Amino acid sequence: MNSYNMMGSHKQITCANRVLDLSGGAKIMGILNTTPDSFYDGGALQGDAGHVDIDRSLDHALAMLRDGASIIDIGGESSRPGAEKISAAAEIERTVPLIARLRQCSDVLISIDTYKAEVAAEALKAGADMVNDISGFTFDPELPLVCRKYQAAVVLMHTPVMPGLMQWSTLTNSGADDIIARVSRFLANSIALAEHHSIENIIIDPGFGFGKSVAENFQLLRHMNSLCELGRPVLVGLSRKSFLGHAITAPGEETPPPAERLSATIAAETIALIQGTSILRVHDVQAAMQCLRVVESIRELRPSNPHRSDVSFKN
Known about the structure:
By secondary structure, this protein is α/β, with parallel strands linked by helices. The protein is built from 10 helices and 10 strands. It has a single domain (about 5-300), classed as TIM Barrel. The strands form 2 sheets. Strands 8-7-6-5-4-3-10-9 form an 8-stranded parallel beta sheet. A two-stranded antiparallel sheet has the order 1-2. α1 (about 55-65) crosses α2, α2 packs parallel to α3 and α9 packs parallel to α10 (about 285-300).
């Protein structure tokens, strides 16, 4: 069975008062970081004295919508390896005023990228519809209660450790256990925890780059369709990740910085889409939309088309 069609009723995701309809194809989530230290765009939306420039941030969000984003994911704390942990109050200050402004001028689905219940509650009150939790409900036991209270949809991601404890990916495996089995078990447990709290609108994320070696990241990418068997829509965040930089580094050369990883990102996103990914979380919305349209054009081929060739989405 084609993994793209395995979600059934879970293709309609209720997000508070809005609906994310995945029945017609994959969607794009645009990344909007208000952080000074994110690995690629840290500081891009900072104003004077390190404060978030809300007008510039709002313009960036609206530009992503024009380019085709269906969801705007707003984050106030960097989750890169070695990132400094900030308080919930600081995270709220960076994100909630922007969420409120964006909600005033758009009906777009808004996601808050946080694992803290206090931040999620303020963001949802301000107009967010979805909580993107990198911990899969494992860092803050109060977060499922908040998501249930506000009827928010959730993105549950696999990560083995807190962001500040992670190291940059290496070329060796991080453990003897199979990465696919390990991620699948974790996400199945996260789904069960969400369902225990009467949360049904669930999206899963394998967590590329989070506590995984370069080889493990590519193993995950190769076997993305295995995660679709968990029966929930799959979101992937591949955008400009360091493991892609390793793949495009010539012998004897330094790994290219994030700014030079767009082509590798699009290649990886194409592979993920072909294997059934439902949402791409990206920095570069326009490029991702072009990638999505090419893959969707292949999917739309029918036997009656005289130009059709044998198209396979198997491993």
